[in-house]
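Protocol check, entry for the methods section draft. Step 1: assemble the input record (protein sequence plus ligand SMILES). Step 2: submit for complex structure prediction. Step 3: store the structure tokens unaltered in the notebook. Ligand used here: flavin-adenine dinucleotide. Step 1 record:
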Amino acid sequence: MMKWGLIFQLQPHTPFLVLPNPKAVPHFRTIINTASSPRFSSSSSSSSSSSPPSSSSVHPTFTSSFRCAVLGAGFAGLSVAWHLLSQSPKELKLHVDIFDDVGIGGGASGVAGGLVHPYSPKVKLLWRGEECWTEFLNLLSVAEDAFNGLSHCQHNTNGLIVRRTGILRPAVNKKFFYVMNENALSYLAGCPIQTIDEIAARKLIPNLCTPLNTAYYMPEAVNVNPLNYLKALFQASENIVKRMSSIGYCGKKITLHKKLVTSICEVGDEYDAVIVCLGARVDMVAELSGVLPLRTCRGIVAHLQLHDSFSEEYCEYSPSILSDVWLAVQGPRSLYIGSTWEWGSRNFSSSVSYEEASSTLQQLLPKTSMIYPQISNWTVTGAQAGVRAMPPLTSQGSFPLLGCIDDLVKGGKSSYPSKYWLIGGLGARGLLYHGWLGKLTAQAVLSSSEALLPLELTSWKK
Ligand SMILES: Cc1cc2nc3c(=O)[nH]c(=O)nc-3n(C[C@H](O)[C@H](O)[C@H](O)COP(=O)(O)OP(=O)(O)OC[C@H]3O[C@@H](n4cnc5c(N)ncnc54)[C@H](O)[C@@H]3O)c2cc1C
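Step 3, stored output:
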């Protein structure tokens, strides 16, 4: 068992600038886009209600009953499972079986930093950023409703599901400074960007350093606790089943099986559809080994707690920080920093050796300290790793991989139209993407129509 509790003293302790009323919402001095209005309208506020969407059309073959296997219980798998249950007609007898050898959040999803917003590192709105943001907020709201109903002791969930204090990105690179300022003007109404100077930034995060006297503040961006969120999302699916049953529709069912899948065909002929959501380990399944255009990238995150001898906590209202490293705040005395990028790694273990953790911290802490010197007061209590499945970079951008994979699952008996499906390559943005991708895939699977998916997401097959 490795020992933690290291205190990395990088800089002498500088006292916090304590604000008179830490709960007061600070007044921001906006230096660039004071009066700018959003360039993109957003339906996020209206659609972030947790009510399930109206039902999708169902292929004639499946009008009375449908059995679906979802492989993987990460963001992708649990999103598609929820959307299948919530979008299918009430009368449809629908059984969803989820298979995961580790359990909920066993892959990258369980160790993600949990930072969610719809922008690139240069604060440019991402491709389909509006749909992604809207669907993410919808699922978050669904999960929050379910989380509030959870018995936390029984389900072993501690703390929060989401911290809604925004995310702040200090500008650190002169090369991209002007382009970032320009990009920041074209924000989504549902997730605005305020360009602020160091004084305003320090009102948000006392002692923050902004090397170029500029930071981009996204007040609506959120920081999710990934494991609590995933457990709640699964609970939300179970709630649909219960709710349907209580009004007389007893045909819906969802079950989680703790089982390793080595071959997709092995899963069973009893399923009408099999949806592969195995993250970076998808390559280890017989039929898909060496077939998908994905690269792996392992990342390590470290957990830190504020040392007992320091009383100045991370302020309740202070946003999380994104820079060359990120700082995902869990509470006044608990945060994660990340992450490393080890391309091509085949190490899927979430455990991190003491030596590996030490070298990781040597990379992460100096960078963190440049932005947030107070990190020297925090004690490292642990580290864990996850592997991202990175999609290829095309001339149009980098898109996740979706679609029907009947052609790839040779030997799979496909007596049904479009039986095998993939959601993969969520890269470093699984939280942003998973709501929208799960919804699209559920619709495509139920209606057995790949044509419902945007071409950008299926073009990897050509
Ligand atoms: C260090 C790190 C930090 C990150 N931070 C963020 C962040 O802040 N924000 C963000 O949006 N994204 C972040 N990401 C990216 C995000 O975590 C991924 O995009 C996302 O988790 C991918 O989800 P997934 O469901 O496709 O795969 P996974 O989460 O990997 O889920 C796959 C599931 O399948 C299971 N599985 C795999 N193979 C098998 C098998 N053969 N049999 C049975 N079960 C199997 C696994 O146990 C796992 O539960 C981060 C990633 C890493 C590594």
